[in-house]
Amino acid sequence: MTSVSQVLHRYRNALREFASFGVIGGSGVLVNMVVFAGANNVAIHVFNSHEYDSFVGIPGTDFAIRNYIVYNVVAFLFANVYNFVLNRHLTFRHGQRAPFLKEYGPFLLVGAVAQVMGIVILQLLMNRTSPLYLHNSFFVDGEPFWRRRVYWAQFIQILVVMPINFVVNKVWTFRVVRQRHAAGKES
């Protein structure tokens, strides 16, 4: 039988990477939420537009892309760059690095795929007809800000997709891409 200390020793580096990814991801969540809230507040106070308002209609349907989806994408892009730079230099700093864009492209692609899943989750949490709609009396569409449904929905979808990002980025972006780059330099 394997002792806990043997397991910890065996997986120490992976646990360190996961913890570092989590801390950086946690600060990235903060970046994401600040940008999301900032975009929401600019829309409200500058453009008199709210999160449920239509940003653009989907042609040929009664559906529209809502403002909160746009805030989500903008916040994702800011947080994605922030997380990549910190993870590249702190979490996955070992080994020979590929050039910035060769690593960032796959990181952005992984994030974008997870982002699509996040948008689906966000939509399910925000759509009043969804079984996952945040309808509890705690969640509101107005004040106070810390009970706003849109902010909680954004936070929840981030928490759901974060583990997917970690695993795929660890295995593909920061390992396979670097290995390919190193192999190409040896040829």
Automatic annotation (TrEMBL):
CC per GO annotation: plasma membrane
Subcellular compartments: Membrane
Membrane-spanning segments: 21-48, 68-86, 107-126, 151-172
InterPro entries reported for this sequence: GtrA_CellWall_Glycosyl, GtrA_DPMS_TM
UniProt keyword Glycoprotein, yes or no: no
The keyword Transmembrane helix appears for this protein: yes
All residue ranges annotated as the GtrA/DPMS transmembrane domain in the record: 21-174
Primary subcellular site in the record, as a coarse category: membrane
Record-level GO BP terms: polysaccharide biosynthetic process
Membrane topology: Multi-pass membrane protein
Keywords of this entry: Membrane, Transmembrane, Transmembrane helix
Residues spanning the signal sequence: none
Family affiliation: Belongs to the GtrA family.
PANTHER family: PROPHAGE BACTOPRENOL-LINKED GLUCOSE TRANSLOCASE HOMOLOG (PTHR38459:SF1)
Name of the featured protein: Putative flippase GtrA (Transmembrane translocase of bactoprenol-linked glucose)
